[in-house]
Design a protein that fits this description.
With about 450 residues, this protein is mainly α. Helices cover about 85% and strands about 0% of the residues.
Length: about 450
């Protein structure tokens, strides 16, 4: 079967899982080398270095939210257009995406390089780790003009129906990053970790953009291909995703600021638990992203029954997986945290966070699937309302609880916001299928 059409025909569950598995593995591999960075820094250096990278990474997310928006919006635009677009139309769309993406990357790098120290002070970065955090962040930013087209081209290839090639490239760059970490972190500290990541981003960008040009484009770039109508579509879908990414960045930044008052060990433990949680939840995010493309292609092909069946299968799959994640986080929290740090206080903070917050993953997984229905149908306004509602509630709960009850306020905030966020997403997904909203596009 032609892989590009495999989402549109055949039994739904095998088609969805066959397409989703490489995307899931791609996200796991991406997160794994982020986890490997943390492990190598935590074990080969110390808690101060771990906290410095954690704070720098939090600030870097302020600049990466634009990349995430372009990535998700571009992939959705390609997936929605693939069933009907000609080769030339797809070529023009891809060149417009890459051009806009690179201009934004260069501007973002310049702004980030200048503002990084002030932003680190804004989140209460302890003075003893400030210089280290600035060094790590600035080296990382030098790779951003390569990271953004790398991530966008991966997503566009996935949107075209090929989820295997990005997986191979991500595995290769992940291995490259880890090997360079092992070589460079010892003699160069956190700077070595940042250089390793930047080098892997350059290699990935060069390969993926060349692959996209070879397989999905039928002409060389010409300035005449840059058209306003493409820019409008790009920003229509990318801007809501960027806002969503920004809102997540804001709450992470606020949490990091609240952590600053609890000490370096709390920052390090929180960071370790967060890396583990992200790694274990990557299969959820990968499956949801593949579901978005499944919905987009089948919506464009006028197959609503297939969309509904895909969502039913998704709910069952995610429920089983998220129950397994909870069991791992609760039962193995101690051994898992010891992979990251030998500091007893940092490990204790991380164990507490991992065990208590993991219960909310049952709600988080289903919430993301409801939102996949909105994104796949390009109901971006409703998707944004769902996401911002949950984030705002979590942020409010953190700001109220953490100053009063300390570290426990972080996971208690998730206990409050996760189930309410799931209910909100379910309500908006149901509303989006009403006759009035089905006849229009947000």
């Amino acid at each position: 079967m032609n892989e590009e059409n495999s989402l549109l025909t055949g039994a739904v569950r095998p088609a969805l899982l066959r397409y989703a598995l490489p995307i899931i593995l791609s996200m796991v591999a991406t997160q794994f080398y982020a986890v490997a960075d943390t492990m190598i820094i935590g074990l080969r250096l110390d808690a101060d270095a771990l906290a410095a990278v954690s704070n720098a990474s939090t600030v870097l997310m302020i600049f990466l939210f634009i990349s995430g928006g372009m990535e998700l919006g571009g992939g959705l635009l390609v997936a929605a257009g693939k069933p009907t677009a000609t080769k030339h139309e797809m070529t023009e769309l891809l060149y417009n995406l890459l051009f806009v993406d690179e201009i934004i990357a260069l501007l973002t790098t310049a702004v980030g390089f200048v503002t990084l120290p002030a932003l680190l002070r804004l989140i209460n970065t302890p003075a003893e780790i400030l210089d280290t955090a600035v060094l790590y962040g600035r080296i990382y930013l030098l790779g951003l003009p390569f990271l953004m087209p790398y991530d966008l081209s991966k997503e566009c290839v996935m949107g075209c129906g090929d989820s295997k090639t990005p997986l191979k490239v991500i595995v290769a760059t992940s291995v490259m990053n880890i090997v360079l970490d092992l070589v460079l972190v010892g003699p160069f500290g956190v700077a070595g970790a940042a250089v390793a990541t930047a080098a892997a981003q350059v290699a990935g960008a060069v390969y993926m953009v060349a692959f996209l040009r070879r397989t999905q484009m039928d002409a060389a770039f010409s300035p005449r291909m840059l058209k306003a109508r493409y820019a409008r579509d790009i920003f229509r879908l990318s801007a809501p995703n960027s806002v969503q990414q920004a809102s997540g960045t804001i709450i992470t930044t606020v949490k990091q600021g609240l952590l600053g008052g609890l000490g370096v060990e709390a920052i390090a433990g929180f960071s370790c638990a967060g890396k583990l949680s992200s790694l274990l939840m990557m299969p959820v995010f990968g499956f949801v992203q593949s579901t978005v493309f499944f919905i987009a292609q089948n919506t464009a092909a006028l197959q609503p029954g297939r969309v509904k069946e895909g969502l039913r299968e998704g709910r069952r799959i995610l429920l089983v997986y998220s129950l397994g994640v909870v069991a791992v986080c609760v039962g193995l929290r101690g051994p898992l945290l010891r992979l990251f740090t030998t500091d007893p206080a940092a490990a204790s903070y991380g164990c507490t966070m991992l065990a208590f917050e993991s219960v909310t993953y049952l709600f988080v997984a289903q919430k993301h699937l409801f939102e996949a229905r909105l994104r796949g149908a390009q109901k971006m306004g409703l998707y944004l309302a769902s996401n911002l509602g949950q984030i705002a509630l979590n942020l409010l709960a953190c700001v109220i609880l953490v100053p009063r009850i300390g570290f426990a306020g972080f996971w208690m905030s998730s206990w409050i916001s996760a189930p309410i966020g799931m209910l909100l997403a379910a309500m908006l997904a149901k509303f989006s299928q009403s006759p009035r909203t089905e006849s229009t596009r947000t």
